[in-house]
UniProtKB/TrEMBL annotation:
Catalytic activity: biotin + L-lysyl-[protein] + ATP = N(6)-biotinyl-L-lysyl-[protein] + AMP + diphosphate + H(+)
Record-linked CDD domains: BPL
SUPFAM superfamilies, sorted: C-terminal domain of transcriptional repressors (SSF50037), Class II aaRS and biotin synthetases (SSF55681)
NCBIfam families: birA_ligase (TIGR00121)
Species per Swiss-Prot/TrEMBL record: Ferruginivarius sediminum
EC number: 6.3.4.15
Protein name: biotin--[biotin carboxyl-carrier protein] ligase
Amino acid sequence: ADRQPRLPPAYRLVALDSVGSTNDEARRLAAEGAEDGTLVWAREQTKGRGRRGREWSSPRGNLYLSLVLRPECPAAEAAQLGFVAAVALCDALGSVLPPLVEVTLKWPNDVLVNERKAAGILLESVMDADGALDTLLLGMGVNIADYPEDSAYPATSLKFEGARRDLDEVELLEAFARHFLTWVNRWVDDGFAPIRHAWLNRSKSKGREIEARLPDRTLQGVFEDLDETGALQLRMSDGSLRSITVGEIFWRP
Ligand code: BTN
């Protein structure tokens, strides 16, 4: 249906039909003073961006949104919000998909449905003149109807994995907004510990053999843990532990 989303009062919705990238629009609005909770939502993007400079395929029928967040915390802790959002999105997807569809998280902030990527999160920060965190732009794309066939990793869409035919962007946007509010309040009240716990429970990656592709090299090891900052703790074959903050991980058979 083409009804307008109904969001909790903590959000200010900016609904667009078509835009280059909702993250760019959110950044522009933030520079003009947009408040915490401003949510830019578009039906399609013409220049959707993924992590690490990749393109994010953005046809109509999927969900594209960016949140303007102005957290009162150091920049190093702000990355935790990516995990807050991933847990919230995981729960939102679980609430709209049939019971037997498996929704899991993959480090850092991907959401997999039946082990294929259905959603991604792009966190960008805006610093003030003193180098402190001013604003965080939390972008999220969910493949509801369509997914790219040619992506670097196995991708899928909610419809392909058996979502109800009438599931649409508006319903999913509302579900995410509700769950994100719950989890962000939890984070404000109790810190990262409950988020980390929830993330690990939903990720099923503890103890799995992985390949971590870092900007400059590739490492193999076992996914051991997520630390307080959201860094991945990789157990190497020589027994040492490495902390990984940027990169991409792949399962190994
Ligand atoms: C990833 O690479 O996994 C992150 C994908 C993030 C895509 C979303 S769609 C809404 C927002 N606007 C963008 O240009 N990118 C993010």
